[in-house]
């Protein structure tokens, strides 16, 4: 625009400049409220939490007393058995969650992409568990898992799989896995919808070409479907990992971290240390370690998005 | 023959999918109508003559906190969604069309904010909000919720605004419309579907949020999810009431998701894949 106006009259340059300036002014004006909110509620606390993690923070006489203690909170993390336990639980939970959700959602998306699975009713069925509040989901499973009156024990005992009712949330590792199942159930719909949208973006002609080359359905899946879904799969895996690391509601309602801290995940530990034990500085240090894990995942997400968006433009 | 067999297998998968997706929810709904004596009978007593709305009336009693929780959640979610749409659509338009310097950086930063674990923000926010007296206020919670729904609203609307033909705006400018008139009278009216989609999404997210609600509220502004968690804890053995409260608190968001399914499926899911 500026190059062409070089040869035109001064007047035109002025109006064009004025137009550009007024658009810029409006752009700043329009984006300011959003930027202000994001800075106040996200940027400030993120920086502040980083600073808090180097402090000993105590509640005294209604006020908050802080003292700079350097890396002590972080040093404590490495010696803290509760942290190690929560870290291991979170890694186990996240890895199994992501693998299970990805495989099951991919299978479901393939089925729903088949002509028999096209009716809109199946999409509605997916939206219902997605919209459900995570706390309501936790209550649902609390009732299903109930050792005395839950339907899961009725099924298991009824089918003769176990003679006596099983206390699903009664032993540490079993309880962790039961929370995992409830979380996988809630996460599948959204990832399936993402993958379905991704499947619909794969050009039909690729399948026709594969068919003409005599590819079996397995070969079509390996050489057309999977490569076509690559970006969508990466996005869903990264989003799912971040969400799995954030799980809180299920732990809070189903087990409160028990039995024997078997279901304490990093997010829950940080909350408990901060708001139950009031060890605010140490809680912030744990939160920052969790943040670091998620930040690495976020980088992966942005990298996964980059090649695609540059090829679009 | 082989084709028919695979069709049968596929049908079986589809039926079991519906069963697995809706079964747990239907079970909760059915049992929420039963009295405690039926729920604790062995085996569970599903006698339809015992179905009643008693659990629902009991949880809605004003002394139980669910009714005020539903009202609080309604206020907070409605307000959050409305403000997010106004502030977010303006910012999205600025980023998509108004040649803002550093807009790519701003967009990436907005996306990155999605990746923060809530606890990182929650601790300093709790400290600041206690000093400002914003703990346990509607405004405090809405302000926090705005910060998580805004990035998504901006990201999706920006993608939509970019696809609106620029000629439309040029024509308006030639006819003498100012930039803000173009935005209000041309851009916004043709963007209703994604505005609905993001608005519904913002409402659902704010309605369902639990983690910040439990940290930033005390007594006055308990939201619906907090009320449910209390039925699941404090009244631990009143299973029917626990389920009735979960059903009641889920109804508004599930109905919204079903009514606006078209917008959500097209606007939100595809937007997330195409960005």
Describe this structure in words.
- The complex is a heterodimer of chains A (about 325) and B (about 280).
- Chain A has about 325 residues and is mainly alpha-helical.
- Chain A folds into two domains: about 1-50; about 80-310, MetI-like (MetI-like fold, Orthogonal Bundle), CATH 1.10.3720.10.
- In chain A, about 75% of the residues lie in helices and about 5% in strands.
- A two-stranded antiparallel ribbon of chain A has the order 1-2.
- In chain A, a hairpin with a 2-residue loop joins strand 1 (about 55-60) and strand 2.
- The longest helix of chain A is centred in the first third of the chain and has 43 residues, at about 10-50.
- Chain A is flat, with a radius of gyration of 26 Å.
- The two termini of chain A are about 20 Å apart.
- In chain A, about 40% of the residues are buried.
- The relative contact order of chain B is 0.14.
- Chain B is globular.
- In chain B, helix 5 (about 105-115) crosses helix 7 (about 140-160).
- Chain B has a single domain (about 60-275), classed as MetI-like fold (Orthogonal Bundle).
- Chain B is an all-alpha fold.
- The mean pLDDT of chain B is about 85.
- The interface between A and B is large, with 98 and 101 residues.
């Amino acid at each position: 625009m500026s190059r062409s106006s070089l040869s035109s009259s001064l007047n035109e340059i002025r109006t064009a400049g004025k137009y550009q300036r007024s658009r810029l002014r409006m752009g700043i004006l329009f984006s300011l409220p959003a930027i202000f909110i994001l800075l106040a509620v996200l940027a400030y606390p993120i920086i502040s939490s980083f600073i808090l993690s180097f402090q000993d923070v105590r509640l005294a006489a209604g006020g908050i007393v802080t003292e700079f203690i350097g890396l002590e909170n972080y040093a404590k993390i490495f010696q803290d058995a509760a942290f190690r336990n929560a870290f291991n639980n979170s890694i186990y939970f996240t890895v199994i969650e992501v693998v299970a959700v990805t495989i099951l959602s991919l299978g479901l998306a393939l089925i729903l992409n088949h002509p028999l699975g096209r009716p809109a009713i199946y999409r509605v069925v997916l939206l219902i568990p997605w919209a459900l509040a995570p706390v309501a989901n936790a209550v649902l499973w609390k009732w299903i898992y109930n050792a005395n009156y839950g339907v899961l024990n009725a099924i298991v005992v009824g089918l003769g799989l176990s003679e006596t009712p099983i206390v699903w949330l009664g032993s540490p590792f079993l309880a962790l896995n039961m929370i995992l199942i409830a979380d996988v159930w809630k996460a599948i719909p959204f990832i399936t919808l993402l993958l379905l949208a991704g499947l619909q973006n794969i050009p039909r002609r690729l399948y026709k070409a594969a068919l003409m080359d005599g590819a079996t359905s397995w070969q079509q899946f390996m050489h057309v479907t999977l490569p076509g879904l690559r970006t969508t799969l990466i996005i869903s895996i990264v989003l799912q990992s971040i969400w799995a690391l954030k799980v809180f509601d299920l732990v809070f309602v189903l087990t409160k971290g028990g039995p024997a801290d078997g279901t304490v995940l990093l997010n829950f530990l940080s909350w408990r240390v901060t708001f139950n034990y009031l060890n605010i500085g140490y809680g912030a240090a744990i939160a920052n370690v969790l943040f670091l894990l998620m930040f690495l995942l976020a980088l992966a997400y942005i990298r996964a998005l980059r090649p695609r968006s540059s090829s679009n433009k | 023959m082989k084709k028919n067999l695979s069709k049968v297998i596929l049908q079986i998968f589809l039926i079991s999918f519906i069963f697995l997706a809706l079964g747990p929810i239907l079970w909760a709904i059915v049992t929420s109508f039963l009295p405690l004596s039926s729920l604790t009978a062995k085996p569970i007593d599903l006698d339809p003559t015992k179905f009643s709305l008693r659990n629902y009336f009991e949880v809605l009693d004003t002394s139980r906190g669910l009714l005020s929780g539903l009202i609080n959640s309604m206020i907070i979610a409605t307000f959050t969604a409305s403000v997010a749409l106004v502030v977010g659509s303006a910012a999205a338009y600025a980023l998509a069309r108004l040649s803002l310097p550093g807009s790519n950086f701003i967009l990436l930063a907005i996306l990155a904010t999605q990746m923060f674990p809530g606890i990182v923000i929650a601790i300093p926010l709790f400290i600041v909000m206690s000093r400002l007296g914003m703990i346990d206020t509607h405004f405090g919670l809405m302000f926090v919720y705005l910060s998580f729904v805004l990035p998504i609203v901006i990201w999706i609307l920006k993608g939509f605004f970019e696809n609106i033909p620029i000629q439309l705006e040029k024509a308006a400018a030639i006819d003498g419309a100012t930039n803000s008139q173009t935005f209000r009278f041309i851009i916004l009216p043709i963007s209703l579907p994604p505005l609905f989609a993001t608005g519904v999404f913002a409402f659902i997210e704010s309605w369902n949020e639990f983690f910040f609600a439990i940290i930033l509220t005390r007594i006055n502004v308990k939201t619906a999810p907090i009320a449910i968690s209390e039925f699941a804890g404090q009244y631990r053995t009143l299973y029917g009431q626990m389920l009735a409260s979960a059903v009641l608190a889920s109804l508004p968001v599930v109905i919204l998701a079903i009514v606006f399914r078209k917008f959500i499926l097209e606007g939100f899911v595809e937007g997330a894949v195409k960005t």
